[in-house]
Amino acid sequence: MTEYLIRRLLQSVLVIFLITVVTFLLIHAAPGGPTQMMLAPGLSPETFEQQKRNLGLDQPIPVQYVRWVGDLLRGDLGYTFKNHLPVGDLLWPRIANTLILMGAAWLVTLVIALPWGIYNSTKEYGLSDQTASFISYLGFAMPTFWFGILLQQWLSLGLDWFPLSDMHSRGKEGSIADLFMHLVLPVSVLSLGFLASYMKYARASMLEVLEQDYIRTARAKGVKERKVVFRHALRNALIPIITIIGLDLPLLVGGAALTENVFNWPGMGRLYVEMATAREYSVLMAITIVTAVVVVIGSLLADILYAIVDPRVKLGQKGGTAA
């Protein structure tokens, strides 16, 4: 297990390194590039060259990259080009807001989808199963932004049940109850697509496990159905679901970005759109790296959970199977 974790950590570091290289090169290849954004307009050629030297932009690209990575490792995300504000001061509060939205959506999805999918595997083609199938088709087919606008028109503007947008009402900053009310609509939008997927995965995985010989043997021995489902079948059925959850993390981040813009949620996705419009490349680079780290960590955690859930996986042992 220790050997496997070290190997996966090294792979994760390599992935993040490659992402930093690609991000840095793409930003420098973008129209205008960081050089034009960081230098004030109307400068004489001599002053222009002097500012480039002061900012280190006259150095070769590899030297600039090494200096940028060194700053990242020290926790220095740089400064915005126009206002010269610390990128970290803009980014960290937005990351916290995005994690609140993503965490709530993920929790709601798992709490609803997994039990429902497991139940439907024991009541195949019943009313509950058909209802779940309808919701799944709806979740797969409906665009996120369109569903968000529908909820705003119906539940906010029409019925006035929930706030239209933002994270807090004016004067109620810090109120948990107010935050909950603002979370309902964006979490509903963000959860719908994943709810559709996870119900299908949970149902299909449980059906496959319930057809195995050892399940038939347990039933033949007179083991109660509840015990067969939750003690014998569920653990093995969770294995592919855990893998899917780890792979879906990038999709959850992307969905959060769309949802944040629809509901004016002050998160990282909305900040990315704003900074892309303003061509604040230092902020875009920081958001890309932070997102990559979150995704890599999620994938690593999924691999660890895979090994915990399935004792047959002998990680890090010679001749064993890696997750």
Automatic annotation (TrEMBL):
Q: Which Gene3D superfamilies match?
A: MetI-like
Keyword field contains Membrane? yes
How this chain sits in the membrane, per its record, is: Multi-pass membrane protein
Which terms under GO biological process does the entry name? Answer: transmembrane transport
Please list the residue ranges annotated as the ABC transmembrane type-1 domain: 95-302
Tell me where it resides.
Answer: Cell membrane
According to the UniProt record, one GO cellular component term is: plasma membrane
Q: Kindly indicate whether the keyword Cell membrane belongs to this entry.
A: yes
Residues annotated as transmembrane:
12-30, 95-119, 131-155, 175-196, 237-263, 283-309
What does the record list as coiled-coil region(s)? none
Report any Pfam family annotated for this entry.
BPD_transp_1_N
Q: Which family does it belong to?
A: Belongs to the binding-protein-dependent transport system permease family.
**Protein known as:** Binding--dependent transport system inner membrane component family protein
Q: Which species is this record about?
A: Paenibacillus macerans (Bacillus macerans)
- Lineage of producing organism: Bacteria, Bacillati, Bacillota, Bacilli, Bacillales
